[in-house]
Specification:
- This protein is an alpha+beta fold.
- Helix content is 22%, strand content 36%.
- The chain contains nine helices and 21 strands.
- The strands form four sheets. The protein has a six-stranded mixed β-sheet with strand order 7-8-9-3-10-11, with helices on both faces. A five-stranded antiparallel β-sheet has the order 2-1-4-5-6, with helices on one face.
- A hairpin with a 2-residue loop joins strand 1 and strand 2.
- The longest helix has 15 residues.
- It is elongated.
- The two termini are 38 Å apart.
- The relative contact order is 0.11.
- The mean pLDDT is 90.
């Protein structure tokens, strides 16, 4: 059974910035997730041949498209790569139908192929329109249709929805999710949008300053990243340095965090005495309001409150007064709870950290 596969290992330096990336992509969608300036678009340019790497290789199904050591560098036109940019990149002097037909391989029934992609991307009635007569979403649909009509062996998507409004972006996300079921080729999608990565990715690679921090199955990366840098980038609000104090007890591990002792699910990566990072989302830190005994219950003092999209970010100082290495945690509290319980800066509260919501990182 044939499974197309891309393999790459690439290096590029621009002044003080250096990029070193490697990966393997099969019949799947790999998302390169990173902030601006991390090197994700540069990675696509190196794979496609738009930018010449300083070292490394790019192989498709075992055949070299680029190999610095062997002196191999195929022209872009010979690489059979579909590349979709964020700025639409449609030909302004061609109609919708002519744009789609432009990349069709020789021998293909042009009319049938154009009709197929026009139907799929809901462009019926716009076949003879020029790009200046189209909305941003329609332009991007035309660009995507033209790219796929060329029957590429690899598809590169460079933040193709970032210039669109939210509603149009969500519509295209839905269309791309359907398209995933039809495509049988490696796809690399570059984005800084967590929702886009979760919706379209099979695996996610997180980049930071030209290096791959972590790569893995989408659900695992978002739920339990392995590295604390990844956790911070993915929006985990509480990332705390800890020491493993005692190993497995009924599947749990005790960790020391400042002056606090907490129980967390055991992680085989960390032995007793090892340094690690304890992570928990702000939304998973709970106020103890019913007085019932809970695991990882802490006394805390409210340090600050700031409104946050209909709720509030509450910063608390956990642990007894007078402790120098106090632990600060962020939690989310809605307006009703805030008002009913008189939660304000300086107020003493009890909080608890559900053990199943805590996880350890390197």
């Amino acid at each position: 059974w044939y499974r197309p596969m891309l393999e790459f290992e690439l290096e590029k330096r621009y002044g003080a910035f250096s990029l070193r990336v490697a990966g393997r992509v099969e019949q799947e969608w790999l998302v390169l997730l990173a902030p601006s300036g991390a090197g994700k678009s540069l990675t696509l340019n190196l794979i496609s041949g738009i930018v010449q790497p300083d070292a490394g290789y790019v192989r498709m199904d075992g055949e070299s498209m680029f190999d610095h050591a062997l002196g191999v560098s195929l022209p872009i036109r010979n690489r059979r790569i579909g590349y979709l940019f964020q700025d639409y990149a449609v030909f302004p002097h061609l109609t919708v139908a002519a744009n789609i037909a432009y990349g069709l391989p020789a021998g293909v029934d042009v009319r049938a192929a154009v009709e197929q992609w026009v139907r799929f991307f809901r462009l019926e009635g716009r076949e003879q329109a020029f790009p200046r007569e189209l909305s941003g979403g329609q332009k991007q649909r035309v660009a995507l249709a033209r790219t796929l009509a060329s029957e590429p062996s690899l598809l590169l998507l460079d933040e193709p929805f970032s210039a669109l409004d939210r509603r149009t972006r969500e519509e295209l996300h839905g269309e791309m999710a359907q398209l995933k079921q039809r495509l049988s080729l490696p796809v690399i999608l570059v984005t800084h949008d967590f929702v886009e990565a979760q919706m379209l990715g099979d695996r996610v690679a997180v980049l930071e300053e030209g290096r791959v921090l972590e790569v893995g199955e989408k659900d695992r990366i978002f739920a339990h990243p392995s590295r604390h840098e990844t956790a911070r980038f993915l929006g985990v609000d509480n990332v705390l340095p800890v020491t493993i104090a005692a190993n497995a007890h009924e599947g749990d591990t005790t960790v020391h965090c400042g002056g606090l002792g907490l129980r967390v699910k055991a992680d085989p990566r960390f032995a007793c005495g090892a340094a690690a990072y304890l992570c928990i989302h702000a939304a998973d830190v709970r106020l103890l309001l019913d007085g019932k005994p809970r695991p990882n219950t802490l006394l805390a003092t409210v340090d600050g409150i700031r409104p946050y999209g209909g709720s509030n970010r509450v910063r608390v100082r956990a642990g007894p007064d007078g402790v120098e290495d106090a632990t600060y945690l962020e939690m989310v509290v809605d307006d009703y709870v805030l008002g009913r319980h008189g939660i304000a800066p300086g107020k003493a509260v009890k909080i608890w950290l559900p053990a199943e919501k805590l996880f350890l990182c390197e």
